[in-house]
Design a protein that fits this description.
With 333 residues, the protein is of the alpha+beta class. The chain contains 6 helices and 13 strands. The radius of gyration is 50 Å and the shape is extended.
Length: 333
């Protein structure tokens, strides 16, 4: 078996890479760190083009894979522009970051990688970062006439405009956002795990409130004063569990036993249909019970149908027609 050799290793290590790149960048480097297995370099915004050219030409980071943006509204320079580089010969990646404000332009890197034109347009469209030197800096993801930059943290989730198809105008129209209802806050905490708040309906299980005292009511037509009972809303919850202490609580007693011994059907008391259960035998009725129905009269057997042909297979075959004779010129008159 032949061995295939390639200059790019299968697994690239970060050992010594950050120190080498930091020494090469010199005063262009502001900060560097290694986190989550990735090397992150922060450089000066005005010198980003020189820093990326150095990494491309002298340290073999040939490809610009992506340009991303991050928004930190609490910072003075709220935006971060992240350049992700890949070295094909080393099989290694690094990230280079610069900071920018809303009115601070970032030098373009389309002079190094022409593909950066579209990537810078994405960051401009979503975050509003301005790239100085990009000759085609216009929106690329949002619609024509879109207002604002949707990936900023202070951009509303609903936006400012919505579009729909108008049947009257037969085209797509833009309208201000009109929400039919407010946003709802959903609580995903399981009540079986024990919530630290009162669920809707739990207030009904609390102690019963004291009933108001009876107040006198005067009826002018009668001239008497009577007490009006306080209004109640259903039975109050029991303070002690319900128990049966006497036979009267369950309805048992001599009256119940006598009612249970009363026979429902008339019959002889000497015998029972089911001994041991106390079921009386019903008396025979005067009206005779209906018996089985009488059998119907026998029908004569059908006579066998006489067929024209006894051979079934021959009868099923189609009839063959005789070939028609061709007329000749002499037959025509």
């Amino acid at each position: 078996m032949t061995t295939v050799l390639h200059s790019a290793p299968r697994f690239a290590s970060n050992e010594g890479v950050m120190a080498t790149l930091a020494s090469a960048l010199g005063d262009m480097l502001l900060a560097s760190k290694e986190k989550h297995g990735e090397i992150v370099l922060g450089v000066e915004r005005e010198r980003i083009e020189d820093a990326l050219r150095l990494l491309r030409d002298e340290h073999d980071y040939q490809q610009l894979m992506e340009i991303a943006g991050v928004d930190y509204p609490q910072r003075e320079e709220r935006f971060e522009v992240v350049y992700m580089l890949l070295s094909l010969t080393k099989n290694h990646r690094v990230m280079v970051k610069v900071r920018a404000a809303e009115d601070t332009p970032v030098p373009t890197v389309t002079t190094l990688w022409p593909v950066a034109g579209w990537l810078e347009r994405e960051v401009f469209d979503l975050y509003g970062v301005i790239f100085e030197g990009n000759t085609d800096l216009r929106r690329i993801l949002t619609d024509y006439g879109f207002e604002g930059h949707p990936f900023r943290k202070d951009f509303p989730l609903t936006g400012y405009q919505e579009l729909r198809y108008s049947e009257e105008e037969k085209r797509v129209v833009y309208e201000p956002v009109d929400l039919p209802q407010d946003f709802r806050n959903f609580e995903f905490m399981s009540p079986w795990e024990g919530a630290d708040y009162i669920l809707p309906g739990d207030e009904k299980a609390g102690p019963a409130s004291t009933a108001p005292a009876a107040r006198p009511s005067a009826d002018p037509s009668i001239g008497k004063t009577e007490e009006v009972k306080p209004e109640t809303r259903g039975p109050s919850p029991a303070k002690t569990p319900k128990t049966t202490e006497t036979a009267a609580d369950t309805g048992a007693g001599s009256k119940t036993d006598a009612k249970a011994a009363r026979k429902v059907a008339k019959g002889s008391t000497g015998k029972t249909a089911n001994p041991g259960s106390g079921e009386p035998v019903p008396e025979a009725s005067v009206v005779p019970e209906p018996g089985a129905p009488e059998p119907t009269e026998a029908r004569p057997a059908r006579t066998k149908r006489q067929a024209k042909s006894s051979d079934t297979s021959a009868a099923a075959e189609p009839k063959r027609r005789k070939p028609r004779s061709k007329k000749t010129d002499g037959d025509a008159s």
